[in-house]
Design goal:
This protein is an alpha/beta fold. Helices cover 34% and strands 25% of the residues. It has two domains: 228 residues, Rossmann fold (3-Layer(aba) Sandwich), CATH 3.40.50.300; 92 residues, CobW-like, C-terminal domain (Hypothetical Protein Yjia, Chain: A,domain 2), CATH 3.30.1220.10. Helix 8 packs across helix 9. The chain is built from 13 helices and twelve strands. The protein binds guanosine-5'-triphosphate. It catalyses: GTP + H2O = GDP + phosphate + H(+).
């Protein structure tokens, strides 16, 4: 049974020194990675899964949105990519995790701009890591509505599909059957061997994605014969991010009107925004998200009594005009 593969009993772990399985969740910006991680954590009652969350922006929003029953369970790396600048931090974190005897599995959520090959190489090349951890699978979440554009805009989006062992075609509620067939065709052209599933809100039977041992080194070397040597990775310099904060309340009506206009006008270049808001008239934090032209807003949890009320917004895109963004944002501050 798959559950047993994911969670060997403590006795087995201690006597046979089984390696800790690692699942890497990848996929372009806004495809549904955090949604998948939360789905896994919700379904995995009582199992100890350490979650490593890596974000491209300088402020970590995903870590705050990830459901975890204790804070120790989540390690966040912001403002750098696991595939390049913070790879050393990943190795150190994994070494720390090996000291935890109760760990059943590790889940890594990469940034939406991560090149998967250098992340994989950490588990194959580094002796300390490969003796304790085994790469179980690369699970790539694909945004059915935006795949075509994402593949056009980003080399990393192509690599994420090409390198996947398992692919979730997510957000099928937003597209037609004809669109799904087209998405499948685009995936097959890049990766004819990955297992493909269709999902809404990344909901999937966990036995299909965890403990599958789907990671296949030989197949990866066929896709990219030099991936174990070529560890330097450079991101497209035109793609950047910035963060805005405010400790004054925000008028969410004004903000939504502005963002809806901006998303329609600049959706080609403004790939992703997400923020937790100190919103005027709301008791709770308000979560705002946009993925290209689609925006959404919802109440999050109540502010904690000892927590400073603060808005944190991250924007990621190509050739973004920070000044223009700041001006628009300031008009929404009450
Ligand atoms: N309609 C629809 N929305 C979805 C679905 N899955 C996720 N979303 C929404 O898409 C947005 C992005 O989802 P996330 O899970 O944050 O995506 P992500 O890949 O973690 O995003 P980044 O970490 O920024 O790259 C959120 O507003 C989700 O609620 C889906 O199947 N259908």
């Amino acid at each position: 049974m798959v559950m047993e593969v994911i969670r060997p009993t403590k006795t087995i772990l201690n006597t046979q020194q089984q390696k800790i399985p690692v699942t890497i969740v990848t996929g372009f910006l806004g495809s549904g990675k955090t949604t998948l991680v939360n789905h896994i954590l919700k379904e995995q009652h009582g199992r100890k899964i350490a979650v490593i969350v890596n974000e491209f922006g300088e402020i970590g929003i995903d870590g705050q949105l990830t459901i975890a029953d204790d804070e120790e369970q989540i390690v966040e790396f912001n403002n750098g990519c696991l595939c390049c600048t913070v790879r050393g931090d990943l190795v150190r974190t994994l070494e720390d995790l090996t000291k935890r005897a109760d760990l059943d599995a590790v889940l890594i959520e990469t940034t939406g701009l991560a090149d998967p090959a250098p992340v994989a190489s950490t588990f194959i090349v580094a002796d300390e890591i490969k003796s304790k951890f085994s790469l179980d699978a690369f699970v790539t979440v694909v945004d059915a509505r935006n795949l075509q554009q994402n593949l056009k805009d980003s080399h990393e989006a192509q690599e994420q599909v090409a390198f996947a062992d398992i692919i979730l075609i997510n957000k099928i509620d937003l597209v037609s059957d004809k669109d799904i067939a087209r998405v499948k065709q685009q995936i097959w052209e890049l990766n004819p061997i990955a297992k493909i599933y269709q999902t809404e809100h990344s909901e999937i039977d966990l036995s299909l994605i965890l403990g599958t041992k789907a990671f296949d080194l030989e197949a990866k070397l066929e896709v990219d014969p030099s991936f174990l040597e070529d560890l330097a990775h450079e991101h497209d310099a035109a793609i950047g991010s910035f963060a805005l904060t405010s400790d004054r309340p925000i008028d969410m009506n004004k903000f939504m009107l502005w963002m809806n206009d901006l998303a329609q006008e600049k959706g080609e270049d403004l790939y992703r925004t997400k923020g937790l808001f100190y919103a005027q008239g709301f008791q709770e934090r308000v979560l705002f998200q946009s993925v290209r032209m689609l925006t959404s807003m919802r109440r999050d949890r109540l502010w904690k009594t000892d927590e400073p009320k603060l808005t944190q917004l991250v924007a990621i895109g190509r050739n973004l005009d920070r000044e223009e963004f700041v001006k628009g944002f300031e008009k929404c501050v009450v």
